[in-house]
Fold this sequence. Notes:
By secondary structure, this protein is mainly beta. The protein folds into 2 domains: 16-168, Sandwich (Jelly Rolls), CATH 2.60.120; 176-331, Galactose-binding domain-like (Jelly Rolls), CATH 2.60.120.260. Helix content is 8%, strand content 44%. It has 3 helices and 21 strands. The protein has helices spanning 2-13, 233-236, 321-331, and strands at residues 22-27, 30-36, 53-57, 71-80, 90-98, 100-105, 108-113, 127-132, 142-151, 157-160, 164-168, 176-177, 180-186, 203-207, 221-230, 240-248, 250-255, 258-263, 280-285, 295-304, 310-320. It has a 6-stranded antiparallel beta sheet, with no helix packed on it. Strands 14-13-15-20-17-18 form a 6-stranded antiparallel beta sheet, with no helix packed on it. Strands 1, 5, 8, 10 and 11 form a 5-stranded antiparallel beta sheet that branches. β17 and β18 form a beta hairpin. The longest helix has 12 residues, at 2-13.
Amino acid sequence: xxxxxxxxxxxxxxxxxxxxxxxxxxxxxxxxxxxxxxxxxxxxxxxxxxxxxxxxxxxxxxxxxxxxxxxxxxxxxxxxxxxxxxxxxxxxxxxxxxxxxxxxxxxxxxxxxxxxxxxxxxxxxxxxxxxxxxxxxxxxxxxxxxxxxxxxxxxxxxxxxxxxxxxxxxxxxxxxxxxxxxxxxxxxxxxxxxxxxxxxxxxxxxxxxxxxxxxxxxxxxxxxxxxxxxxxxxxxxxxxxxxxxxxxxxxxxxxxxxxxxxxxxxxxxxxxxxxxxxxxxxxxxxxxxxxxxxxxxxxxxxxxxxxxxxxxxxxxxxxxxxxxxxxxxxxx
Length: 332
């Protein structure tokens, strides 16, 4: 059994972390701060980790002076992201983590795989690649990365991979980046598409990511996302496309209360239901719906058939029609 797991692991290491074309901008391999145990205060960017141990990444923590240790461990590292990267779409690559992780950038959740106890589920064979919303980044200043890890048995920690900050080579030029925190609520109510609906008491979750990564593991069925955006007048004059990445499983999307697109059939929840989780969403925004220099509201109604759900990957933002055409032709 151990040998079979090892063979499978070696095969997985040979696979690319993602189909997207990435370019390394910052190498994060080397010395990180590390502490055993579990304390959610370690998420805070200002937490003083100067007395923590030093550990090499990537490497199993058993090889770094913690032989036989199973349980929780935290990694932290601080670094500067140059201002010249502010016009690029960035990703954090963490390679293979054994077994479970939740990853935070400047105190904000950006991704995780597997489940912590008591509903433990390993994700040792998953290549970690998490989007870095530009709104979370301190360009030209210090940024802090914190990774919470749980290991059930065997090797533990950030064990293998090309660890670093990467940019996307085939990037579309977004006029407005909408990745980051969105308002979120499970359930279904047509009023949630309205412009003036008060969503201030909703929870906020990172987009793109699955909602299971934000303690909504038991949510199947309907849920809604909402985001407000101000579109400058010079951008509003252009033909614009709303890009929502990939959504698991189907969606209806509203702009200022009017539906501008959908993918999948909400009425088809029986045996003929069909997931559209692998289709990238892009919807034209009719110019007459846009309120230049004022609040515009995007509302996304999602239905998940089971397992993972939500706006989970891809480009999230507003692009011009011409930029979208260049990107879509390149992606084919």
